[in-house]
Amino acid sequence: MIKKDYYEVLGVDRGASKQEIKKAYRKAAMSHHPDKNPGDAEAEEKFKEAAEAYEVLHDDGKRRIYDQYGHDGLKGTGFSGFSGFEDIFSNFGDIFEDFLGSGSGRSRRQRGSGADLRFNLAISLEEAATGSKKVIDVDKQAPCPACKGSCAEPGTNAETCPTCSGYGQVRQTQGFFSINMACHRCGGSGRIIKNPCVLCSGKGREIQRKKLKVNVPVGVQSGSHLRLVGEGEPGVSGAPDGDLYIQISIQNHHTFERHEDDIVCQLPITLTQAALGAEIEIPTLLGKTTLLIPRATQTHKLLRIYGEGMPKLHHGGKGDLIIQVIVKTPEELTKEQEKLLREYAEISGESVKERSKGIFERLYR
What we know:
The chain is α+β, with helices and mostly antiparallel strands. The chain has ten helices and 15 strands.
């Protein structure tokens, strides 16, 4: 995959100052942050590109090499981008604290923190209108009940790796550059397990199903996500667990469509109700109400009932119920009904088609 020019990614000139680079990165990070664009693959990719560009351009040494040799020159520094969001957040924790505030949920993510999980939760339109308490089943990794996550058979202990002295990394020199690499002997864990746990085969974890309670707020919309802190994958060596993000989707309703905080439905009425006006009891999302049909109402006219829509998330108040009137033409008429309509047409001076005679009327005139 061809990497983009880092200056173009951040939208700055090649002579931009560190402050200008940081300001450009702040703008890009806030715009494409995954918490603000859940499920948006394009935004996630732009977020990663911006983080990679900032990592290089705010570092004098990396920037000098990049300006002179481009992306290929950075390979000698050991930097080839970020493996994922956790890698980005662990490197830029303090920056995200400044950019997005302490409530961003990711700003002080430690190395070794557990991975975040996502769960898709489908709810009805009524549940979105009233709020609800849901119980979900989530399959996630949990510490092995036998070894308690140590990976070693109960009664035995892991040993400190003699190659890296427990640091999990070894330093290697390549030409002018020195880079840290995961220790080949312990795989980066810093420990040697001579007697792996039999139950989990030395993994220290197993998949378990956990029931979790989710409080769905009143007025929630499709695409919203709820965050359950610490309900993601477990961290490593005492690092905090990841979080669980609940992605909300609202199921299609048989009567109503949602448009922001308003709900819309169609209401069929008769010719006489449209012409003379009427009072009709109609369903609302959570009950019933009376709708006044004005005289001479035309088909597709929109009528609005204030405050009968969806509750507004975090703001109080409600949207409106919007009714699209559909005037239905009768498919069958009695003789009396047809006679009255023809008299009305004659009084109004309207031209209508003559009633076709049946076969027996034509034969026995």
